[in-house]
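Example record

One chain of 826 residues, shown exactly as stored in the release files.
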Amino acid sequence: MIILLLLLACTAETTPRDASLPRIRAGAPVAGVAEAPIDFPMGAPLGGYTNRCLYLGNAANVDGRESDYTLAFGPSAGIQTRAMAKALWLENGDQHLVILKADVIYSFDGLVEAVEDALHQATGEDLDGRVTLTTSHTHNAPANFSDQVPFYLGGDKYNEEVFQRFAASLTAVALDAYTHREPAKLGVGIARDWDPDDQIYSDRRGENNDLVVWPDGDPATGKDPHLWVMRVDDLDGAPMGLFFNFGIHGIMLDADNPLVSVDSTGHIEMAVEDAFDAPVVVAHWQGAGGDASPRGRGEHGHRFAKMEGLGELAVGPIIDLWTQTPTAAEPITLETVTRAIPQDLETIRVTRDGTVDWRYATDGGPPDEILYEPDGSLRSPFDEFAAPVGAVFCGESGPLGNIGTLQSRVPPYDSCVEPDTLEEILENLFDIQRLTFPLPSTLRANTTAARLGPLPIRDADGQQVHDDLLIGFFPGETAAMYAEQYRRRSKAELGYDYAMVVGYAQDHEGYLLIPEDWMTGGYEASINLWGPLQGEHLLEQNLIMADAHLNTDVLEPQDPNDEWQPTVYEDRPLPVFSPDRSATAGQLVDTVPEGLFVPLDGVTPQPQPDDEIVRFTGLAQLVWEGGDPSVDLPIVTLEVQGDGGEWSAVTTPSGRPLTDARPDILLTHTPQDGRHFWWAGWQAVGWSDARQDLPAGTYRLHVEGQRLNGDEDRWPWRSEGYSLTSAPFTVVPAEITLVVGEDEIRASLVGPSWGYRLIDIDGSSQGDNPLASPTLTWEFEDGTTMTDVGDRDRGSGTSVFDGPIPEGVVRGVVEDGLGNSATLVP
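Predicted structure tokens for this chain:
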């Protein structure tokens, strides 16, 4: 055993180290940040829920429509919030690191490679292995940009046009950040137990509640409790970017949702953005989200409103940590390494720095069905996982039921299904001619490690230190124990006291668990291909490459012997079809077409807004004919009329135009016989901490779109712009609802039955909401007055005044300080 481990240690590192190699040089930090919507075509299928597949549930398939961008999934039908791309470009005069974040379900190594190549061509910079992509894991954005066949079941068959449009969006936002680089001050903040009451996120994995892995550790009964913030300021201290990291799933919307949405993480980002009075790029880098679900408060009514409420609950702790995070412009070193790690039954192994030798049996013999040694440790070899092409659904039966195909009949192996047994299903569902197993994309997984520093760090104990930061980018859904293991092993084996785990990055392999956690079974263990050792095998290889490249003062070549090359994917042709010319695109309609899709129950669509829109209960609607969704994804902006009659975009507290990129304005598309009808709706609610303070005034909806004017039969399509506006409408104050009891008077702003916007964190979008600054003024017969201040009652969503009504009162006036009022006459 000792000889074997020594041989492994000797052969693990093949990178040459000779005196001719350049040395890593420290330099002052330079940073660029940028953000932009992703150019996804409407109709592209949303990823994350298998039961959106037409043959496995057909959830969210609105009116049976079809799309040129789908095969086995229903098309997307609108936008709640646009999928966004965010970029941070770091350099120090010596090396570069590009960190991209996108609102999609998972990353894809082929996409990362394409963007890296495009950026190198555009800039001439050496970016080999230095471009990273982490994703929000929203289950409500297009997913057919990935050519990993196992995940077609979660997001439909790969589409080359969707891929190219996504890659172009990521390249453009990265180049924007590159163009706007400037000297910067950097710092890192860490908080622990920052959400003690599980208001923001909570553990969702109960199978491991009694599991103890580390002698000094408690049972794994909870979520990863860490919040990280990277603060990027200019040299004057003005904020440029705020990048935060913790683990949370993107599942606040269910499989029946047909609208693109940034889901939980994106709504937190927008709340943090609105904490600033100027645009600051804010991005969430996913952490240990594999076993963490979003929470929020349940009384918010519509699930869109609940996502807004989640942002309001999270913004305070994040901004508090950002405020406490120190920054500095002192020179730092910066180095990044990326490898495509081989993984198969023979290659995968975990040694834990020589303390174990865990591997799979490859002799084909029957399993002994003994999973643990007498001392409780895991037994090796793991002969129950005799799966030469991998296996899925271990620990929990999949969508096809419990059809386990391995020899082992002991849990969690008894439900494992070898993917080649699903060959006919996959080929028929996704029109694939012939699959080869093991699937090529499953034999390698990309992972990245980056070191930068020393940086000023506010640690989890509140102390300020200067130290290096290690960031591990992992290709899947990292769980809480996985992140803890990376932090522990990084410190013990590499000497890093500060190691951040960024999941859903670079590639995708499903859930990443340490072996002890995987063995407890459950849903998370069922969604990976290479069994209990895959997760820590990738973690261990990340540490090995970090030690070889980052723990030296030498700039080693990324891959001098071509050992760690990523999967090469087959070139795919662009889809060939002819978009509808839509000759009437860009015109308002007088009559709403029958069957127009509106995503709000109980709302009758209108072609134009009413002349008056009441705060909270009013909905401004607009219907128009637009272009084919291949070329048209209209941008709808709320505009306000100034005192001089001029129109300008309404802006959020951070100075961004209020468009359908945010939760304020909903957008849908309805195809009918070659014509394309678009609907926009805006509920008259303010934003951020001024939701009830929407200024009265005259508003309108302004639309900018595109219509086809070429004859191409594949993307990119030639198009021309159109613009139109709604009729102006006036926003007027709301009437406060009063309920008079014997001993109290309750006042509230009542949201409509279809209400989708958060009105108050302690209220409901479709029910009662307390007043901002409630007062009740009694007017007496003798002309005197008496004013009472109401109390907020979170339990009922109302403001409460003491009763009964005093003697001699002529009337009472309830006001909220924002123009909303009600009169009570005894």
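Notes: The chain has eleven helices and 39 strands.
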